[in-house]
Structure formats: C-alpha cells, structure tokens
Write a structure and sequence with these properties.
The complex is a heterodimer of chains A (about 80) and B (about 210).
Chain A (H helix, E strand, L loop, with lengths): L2 H6 L1 H5 L5 H12 L2 H18 L8 H18 L1
Chain B lengths: L8 H14 L3 H20 L5 H17 L10 H20 L44 H4 L2 H12 L3 H12 L4 H8 L3 H23 L1
Classes of the chains: A mainly alpha (about 80), B mainly alpha (about 210).
Chain lengths: ~80, ~210
C-alpha cells in the first residue's frame, strides 16, 4: 500500500469497515510510516474537535419555553 | 434496518429516557433537551443557515417529538428518532426559504459520492509515498486545538461543505450517531456514508492543518 492509498482508507479503518486482509496491510504500512501515523492521529483529533460543536448549551429562554410546553403536553395527555 | 442493529449500551439509556418521557418526568425531559441541544442546533444549521431559524427548528422538533411520542415504536433509538425529526423539519424549512439557486448550480455535477482523492497529489512522490508529510499536531497546545477561534473555523469549514457531506459529518461526529443509524436516516448505503464522512473529515482536517501548524 502507498501513502496515497492509505490516507483514503482512514475512515474505513476507523469505522472497522476494512476486510481483515486490508486491515492487516493498513496497519503494517502504518507501523513503518510516520506521515500516515500522523495523518491518522489528525483524523482522530478532527473527529474529536468536530464533536465539541455539540457542547453549545441551551439558552435559558428556550429551555423555559420547552419546559412549559412539556407541562402543557403532560396536562393534555393525562 | 432491524431494531437489533441498535442494540447496545446507548439503547438501554434511551429506553429509560423513553419511559421517563412517557410518564411525564420533567427532569428527564430537561436533561434530554440540555444534552442534545448543541447537536440538534448544528444539525438544523446544516440545512437552514439562519441561527434564529435553526433554534425554531429545534423547538419545533421537541414539540413534534412530544406530540408523536405515543406513535414512536422504538424501531430506532429515541435519539435517532429525535434527530430524524430535526432533519425533516429543517429540510422542510429550507424548502420554504425557497432561495433561488444561482443558475450555474443547476448543472453543477454532484460528485458527493465520488472517491476523488482528498489529499493533493502534490503531497506525494511518484511512488505514492509522502513527499510533504503532515506535520504532527502533537506539539500544538490543547488550548489552541479547542480554542473558540478553532471552533469558529471548524463551523465555517463544515458550513462550506456540500450538503451531503455536511449532514453526514454532523450526524456522525457532532450528534454521535453510529454508521447504521446514519445510513437509515439518510437512506444511503454504508459505502456512500463512509465516502461522504471521509471527504467531510478530510476537508476539516485540511483546514485545521493550515490553521494549527
């Protein structure tokens, strides 16, 4: 496998979607390649940083409105 | 997709959330709206660009969720069901926005699922090995990796992606749904899901590489 091929398989690798043979070849390449090892670490960091976008907290006004809606819903359904 | 494909730790938690919601447990509802708000907002913004409109989509999604709770059959996890509702409402809002497409985009080829290389050919030598390998980010301080400026750039990078890439990276990496769930929500094959996710992550990585190193 070349580096050019390995970088395109990174997501398949992270998702466990490579065949056992491809996975072994991928890992063998990685073991001897600092560039691809760095690239894989960066893809993992990218995933982690993107995940942080979920941290945005709910504004109080929206939370209050939704809780009021929940009470209304609860009142209607019982 | 079978209910079995969702079996796992997350499902137990969702099941208890579902029971709690159905029994009118306000604390459980509050925990859910707090936990999912950021990801729901990002998903809404994958379709509607206006933050105010996106917030409305999130609110409407919760109301729809409550109204339909009795009809929810548990074929997917509660979380996947909720994100599916956000997606549907955001998509219909986007249609209502009905912005006129620039003429050129009418015949621009949709290559969202192509396996075109994600790293420039100039980074490799004729043998396919790195000629300009990536600089490790291990020396970049965590405070910079997660700074508000980095987050702003990540948002912008995702917003500039084609919609098919944007929705997959948001569902997978922001909302944290698994591959099967995303394939089901978007009615796409496992392979297309991975191609889109790969291209989306590669684009965000490239932006981060330019900014962080």
């Amino acid at each position: 496998m070349t580096c050019r091929q390995v970088v395109e398989l990174m997501t398949d690798y992270l998702d466990g979607a490579l065949s056992p043979e491809d996975r072994a070849r991928f890992e063998e390449h990685l073991a001897g390649c600092d560039g691809c090892t760095a690239y894989l670490a960066e893809m993992r960091t990218t995933r982690r940083v993107v995940g942080r976008l979920a941290d945005e907290s709910i504004p109080k006004s929206i939370e209050d409105e939704l809780l009021k809606a929940f009470r209304d819903w609860k009142g209607e359904t019982r | 997709m079978t209910p079995l494909s969702f079996a796992g730790v997350g499902e137990k938690r969702s099941d208890s959330d579902l029971e709690a919601l159905r029994s009118g447990d306000e604390a459980a509802f509050r925990a859910l709206i707090q936990m999912h708000h950021g990801a729901m907002l990002r998903l809404a913004m994958a379709y509607v660009r206006d933050p105010g409109l996106a917030e409305e989509v999130v609110q409407e999604s919760w109301l729809t969720c409550l109204r339909n709770l009795d009809k929810f059959e548990g074929r997917s996890s509660l979380k996947t069901w909720i994100f599916g509702i956000v997606m549907n409402i955001a998509r219909s809002r986007k249609r209502k926005e009905a912005r006129v497409l620039p003429f050129a985009s009418l015949w621009r080829r949709d290559d969202s699922d192509s396996r075109r290389p994600t790293v420039e050919a100039s980074r490799f030598g004729g043998d396919g090995m790195w000629s300009v390998p990536p600089d490790s980010w291990s020396n970049v301080p965590e405070s910079k990796v997660l700074s508000s400026e980095t987050m702003r750039r990540v948002k912008a990078a995702i917003e500039s992606l084609p919609i098919k890439h944007r929705e997959v990276i948001t569902l997978r990496d922001v909302a944290g749904l698994d591959a099967d769930e995303v394939c089901g929500l978007l009615s796409i094959t496992a392979e297309n899901q991975r191609v889109r996710l790969h291209r989306a992550r590669a684009a965000v990585r490239k932006m981060l590489e330019e900014y962080l190193t």
